[in-house]
Amino acid sequence: MQTSGPQSKAVVPRFDAIDIIRGLSILSVILLHVRIFLSLSGMPVGNTLPRWLWVLLFRNGNGVPAFFAVSGFLITLTSIRRFGSLQGMRSAVFYRIRFARIAPPLVFLLFVLSILHLAHAPQFRISSKVCGLPHALLAALTFHLNWLEALHGWLPPCWTVLWSLSVEEMFYFLFPLLCAALLVRTWGMPAFVLTLCVFVLLGPFARTVFTTNPLWAEESYLSGMDGIAIGCLCAMLTDRCSRIVRLANSPWPILCQIAGAILMIFIEAWEWPKVILGAPVKHALGRSGTDITVLIAGVCLVMFGSVLRPARGRLWTAPIRWLGQHSYEIYLTHEFVVIGVSMLLLKLRRGPMALWVCLVLAGAALLGYLVARFLSEPANRALRGAPLPQQLLPQSDQRT
């Protein structure tokens, strides 16, 4: 999406490789939720597939950590180039741009979910054993819905997807404050980098320490913020390296992309590395919580190489890139399609399962596009409002 106006040139252009990562990530999230919903309804998905393919398509669901890394990378890189440096960040402008991008579809989603809850719609009514509607709305709007679920239990699926938004936006609430507190003081950049590194180190710990509450281990702030922090660190390094012309013309960007892709495949294709390296290596990564860290490192290596040597995506990647460009809206709304198609399948119980899965993917893509086209994009432009000073012009926010 491009911001309107004669002086609305984007600070950071779209990178096709990053859109591919986001497109694959949203695919993994949708397929995971299809498998979970239908399995709970007694209709397993993909049982006839080879084990490795079933795991790759329907079990991994590591799209959210990848989204965190992409988000941290892009928002840090755009902030550096919009404000000239992180030291020059203007908090009011940063929050205004985040609000314009995040709030409109979120508020619309909460409005629809409230109507469905009050109408006692199946799969949308919040159990009184978990919380009331006002409590759920407050948690979603103040970005602690992940905390609410950890304490009281699962909300309906269309509410649960907001846990990742709670983690992400809490980080971005702190981000300008950290920049102001650390970068403009005598501690400077080393203190800021050290703070981000602390988030990185705490991530695997948070994913493994809460063994008595697996939901909190997955949805806690610290278990997700390490991905955003790694993305931030990668963006800072990328910005510095992008000023070295000879580096962009060297083989290093491509080598980084290849290495990153290998790490991502290593984690996502769970069965293959077992054959190559043996089960103990994979299980050690999982038990220590560093499997997600390895995945995030792979994502960041791909983004690093893509920015230093940007390349256009091939024609066959266009559908995946399109999904990546609308990933935020698709993520917020895809559970409506998953639930609707699944309930129809349970009623009819006919037709090949692959066709139903494709119907979910197509419906989720269409709904996400409609929300982006007629709500997110117009509201984003309107809320950014009056033109900013020349050096602070808003740009297309490549949200995850």
Write down the Rg.
21 Å
- Poorly predicted sequence stretches spanning 5 or more consecutive residues: 1-8, 388-400
Shape: globular
> What level of helicity do the residues show?
over 70%
Looking at the chains present, what oligomeric state does this protein adopt? Answer: single chain
Strand runs, count = 0
**Which structural class matches the secondary elements?**
mainly alpha
Question: How can the largest sheet be summarized?
Answer: none
Average pLDDT number: 87
Total individual domains? 1
Strand content: under 5%
Task: List the helices and strands in order.
Answer: HHHHHHHHHHHHHHHHHHH
How many helical elements? 19
Instruction: State the end-to-end CA separation.
Output: 13 Å
What do these coordinates show?
The longest helix has 32 residues, at 353-384. The protein has one domain. The chain contains 19 helices and no strands. It is globular, with a radius of gyration of 21 Å. Residues 1-8 and 388-400 have low confidence and may be disordered. It has 400 residues and is mainly alpha-helical. Helices cover 73% and strands 0% of the residues.
